[in-house]
Structures are given as C-alpha cells and as structure tokens.
C-alpha cells in the first residue's frame, strides 16, 4: 500500500503540473477534495506508540484562554515568554533551543492567559518534520495563535508558516464559510445558491460531493465569493479550526525605520523588540483585544457589585456560561438573573439562561 504521505505528494505534484483554466477547473476541484481527505487521514491518531498522530504536548489548559507562540526557530518566542510571564524559558542564539511546550501565565485585565512557548517549526512541519506535528496540534488547541516572525528575515517565512497551518485545517483570521450543508439519508442532492458565486457552480459541488460519496444532501451557498476550497472546508468541518492570529514581528531593533513602518501596516500585525523592550506591552494589549474576553462583575442581593474581582468569560457568552464559570452546579438551582450594563434593555433586566452578556455587565444570579 502506498502510504498517505506519498499519495499526498502525488496529488500535490499533479496539481502543480495542471494548468489552471476553465477546462481543468473541475479536475482541480476534485484533486483538492482528495487532498483534504488524505491530509485529515494523516492527522488521525492511528493508535500505538510513535504513530505520529494528532497528539500535542502534555500541557493541560489553564486560565481563561490559551495563546500559542508559533514560529521558525530563534525568532524570539522564548525571549517573549520570559518577558511577559514569570516563567523563564531558555533563550539562545541557536535553533531548537526549546524542545517542548513551556507554559507561562500572563496576568492582564483580571484574566489569567496561558501562553505556550513552543519549539520552532520549519517547512514540512505538518508532515512531521522536527516536532512540527506536535507544535501544530498544540496551536490547534489555542484561542489565539501568536505567529512570531523575525523582522530581519525574508517575508516568505510568514507564507510558509501559514501554508503549514493551512494544510492541517487551521484557518487563520477567517470565518467558517457561509455555506449550509445537510447530509441526508435519501432524496438526492439539492443544491441552491442565494446569489450565484463567481468561482463555484453546481457541477463543481456535485462532483466533489459524489467523490465524497455524499449523494443525498441539501446545500445552500449563501456567499457569492465562495470557492471550492470553502465548500471542501464545509464538508470537512470536523477537521477545521478557525483561529485568530496575530502576526508579531520581533527584532525591529535591527531593521530600518522605513521597513518597520511597512511591517506595522500589515493587517493583524504588530512589531516589537524584546531586546530593547519596544512594543512588547502593545503586543500584550493586542493579545487581550484579540481574545475578546469579557469582564463581568457579580452582585449579591442587597449589596453593591463587587468591582474588585472580575469574572472572566469568553466572547459570545450567555448567562448559562456565566453560571458554569461560577460553579459547576449553579445552573441546577438557577431561577433567573438580573443584569445591569450594555446587554440589558432596562436596568436591571430580568433574564434567563440564554441571555447573552456584554463586557463589563453586572450580573446577579437568583437561585431557587
Ligand atoms: N536583536 C534581537 N535579538 C533578539 C530579540 N529577541 C530575541 N533575540 C535573540 O534571538 C535569539 C533567539 O531567541 P529565542 O528566544 O531563543 O528564540 P526562539 O524563537 O525561542 O527559538 P527556538 O526555541 O530555538 O525556536 C537569542 O539570541 C535572543 O537573544 C530582539 O528583539 N532583537
Ligand atoms: K533559539
Ligand atoms: Mg524557544
């Protein structure tokens, strides 16, 4: 049996050889679909020791959110961790100084944010070069990827890392495609478009679905910019992870002002020098912003709200999430909640478990 890595290589080669035009479009779409399937297989844990499956490092999640430091060797990941947390991670001028995941805790805005310093990764990481696979698995479990880049190195490093992450199903700074897919038991395929997309048609969708042996389903494409890649992402949604990414250029002490200015203007980017302590605090603030954590204050009946200690919850949290955050069993005795703040229509608003809270709301839980 040809192994999966070889099959992947074959398809990648064929895709490279195939010229992109109207005539080859459908064939390329099918190849992309096959590639996505094989890559998912490659990441599946096969069981047994040393199988190189999807396992990450043995660091348990803690705190209110997790941020993974991902980058080539010697870009300054460990230096950064040691700067913003109390943890000291060894830093040195040679590659692969860090060999495992080193967690640190960043305290900010009343939250405890776990920062994971990771070994450097190189091209081919997703196929298992170095500790690449493990690093990528750890990145997949994070709420934010901080891609640390060396400002003095070529711009390609960013695209290379993105391609590595992309090939294992990590989508950076992207929303899941706006395509509805429901697999059914019978009834054939029903494919509809809200506005016909420029780069995706019924034939393409039909071909890909058939290749995936999905013969009965309902598809509704809502986005006119949708591509076949988006459609494949929807089919493979259990293997896709949509994660925010902040690109941080370190070592700006060693580049020209003009170049620095150019880097700083890139989207989702920040610049810093750990060595000169320039921009580091700004990066911390950006981490906080990107995580979109919310600070809530609790209030007991008849008392003033407790502003001394915030309750940290994730964005898009409901009162139910708030209850879970306070105590595992609070929900069971929950009667209603009173909410003051941006999410409340009047002060206070009496709400149920489904109510969505806003940053800096004051919440009072009333039990049965
Ligand atoms: N000029 C300059 N050097 C820096 C800066 N930050 C870190 N360094 C140096 O870059 C080298 C690599 O730093 P590390 O923190 O070990 O890099 P790393 O990304 O953790 O490397 P690996 O663990 O090997 O992947 C060290 O010699 C640091 O002193 C910076 O802002 N400017
Ligand atoms: K290093
Ligand atoms: Mg390191």
Automatic annotation (TrEMBL):
<protein>
    <submittedName>
        <fullName>Ribosome-interacting GTPase 2</fullName>
    </submittedName>
</protein>
<dbReference type="GO" id="GO:0003924">
    <property type="term" value="F:GTPase activity"/>
</dbReference>
<dbReference type="InterPro" id="IPR005225">
    <property type="entry name" value="Small_GTP-bd"/>
</dbReference>
<feature type="domain" description="TGS">
    <location>
        <begin position="292"/>
        <end position="367"/>
    </location>
</feature>
<dbReference type="GO" id="GO:0005525">
    <property type="term" value="F:GTP binding"/>
</dbReference>
<dbReference type="InterPro" id="IPR006073">
    <property type="entry name" value="GTP-bd"/>
</dbReference>
<dbReference type="Pfam" id="PF01926">
    <property type="entry name" value="MMR_HSR1"/>
</dbReference>
<dbReference type="InterPro" id="IPR031662">
    <property type="entry name" value="GTP-binding_2"/>
</dbReference>
<keyword id="KW-0547">Nucleotide-binding</keyword>
<dbReference type="Pfam" id="PF02824">
    <property type="entry name" value="TGS"/>
</dbReference>
<dbReference type="InterPro" id="IPR012676">
    <property type="entry name" value="TGS-like"/>
</dbReference>
<dbReference type="GO" id="GO:1903833">
    <property type="term" value="P:positive regulation of cellular response to amino acid starvation"/>
</dbReference>
<feature type="domain" description="OBG-type G">
    <location>
        <begin position="65"/>
        <end position="292"/>
    </location>
</feature>
<dbReference type="InterPro" id="IPR031167">
    <property type="entry name" value="G_OBG"/>
</dbReference>
<keyword id="KW-0342">GTP-binding</keyword>
<dbReference type="InterPro" id="IPR027417">
    <property type="entry name" value="P-loop_NTPase"/>
</dbReference>
<dbReference type="InterPro" id="IPR004095">
    <property type="entry name" value="TGS"/>
</dbReference>
<dbReference type="InterPro" id="IPR045001">
    <property type="entry name" value="DRG"/>
</dbReference>
<dbReference type="Pfam" id="PF16897">
    <property type="entry name" value="MMR_HSR1_Xtn"/>
</dbReference>
<dbReference type="InterPro" id="IPR006074">
    <property type="entry name" value="GTP1-OBG_CS"/>
</dbReference>
<dbReference type="InterPro" id="IPR012675">
    <property type="entry name" value="Beta-grasp_dom_sf"/>
</dbReference>
């Amino acid at each position: 049996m040809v192994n999966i890595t070889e099959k992947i290589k074959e398809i990648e080669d064929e895709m490279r050889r195939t010229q992109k035009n109207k005539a080859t479009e459908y064939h390329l779409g099918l190849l992309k679909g096959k590639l996505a399937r094989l890559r998912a297989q490659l990441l599946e844990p096969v069981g047994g020791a040393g199988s190189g499956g999807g396992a990450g490092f043995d660091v348990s999640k803690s705190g209110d959110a997790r941020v993974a430091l991902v980058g080539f060797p010697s870009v300054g990941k460990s230096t950064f961790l040691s700067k913003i947390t109390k943890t000291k991670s060894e830093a040195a001028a040679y590659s692969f100084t860090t060999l495992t995941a080193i967690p640190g805790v960043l305290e900010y805005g009343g939250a405890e944010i776990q920062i994971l310093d990771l070994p450097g990764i190189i091209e081919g990481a997703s196929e298992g070069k170095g500790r690449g696979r493990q690093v990528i698995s750890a990145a997949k479990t994070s709420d934010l990827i901080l891609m640390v880049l060396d400002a003095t190195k070529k711009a390609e490093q960013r695209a290379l890392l993105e391609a590595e992450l992309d090939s294992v199903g990590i989508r950076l700074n992207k929303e899941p495609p706006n395509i509805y897919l429901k697999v059914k038991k019978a009834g054939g395929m029903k494919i509809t478009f809200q506005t016909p997309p420029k780069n995706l048609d019924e034939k393409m969708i039909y071909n890909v679905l058939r290749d995936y042996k999905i013969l009965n389903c309902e598809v509704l494409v809502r986005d006119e910019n949708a591509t076949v890649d988006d459609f494949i992402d929807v089919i493979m949604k259990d293997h896709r992870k949509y994660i925010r990414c902040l690109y941080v250029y370190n070592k700006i002490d060693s580049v020209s002002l003009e170049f620095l200015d150019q880097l700083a203007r890139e989207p989702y980017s920040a610049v810093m020098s750990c060595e000169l302590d320039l921009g580091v605090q700004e990066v911390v603030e950006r981490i906080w912003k990107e995580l979109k954590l919310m600070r809530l204050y609790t209030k007991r009946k008849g008392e003033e709200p407790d502003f001394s200690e915030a309750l940290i919850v994730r964005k898009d949290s409901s009162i139910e999430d708030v209850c879970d955050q306070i105590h595992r069993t609070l929900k069971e005795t929950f009667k209603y909640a009173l909410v003051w703040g941006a999410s409340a229509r009047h002060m206070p608003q009496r709400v149920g478990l489904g109510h969505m809270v806003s940053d800096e709301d004051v919440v009072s839980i009333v039990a049965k």
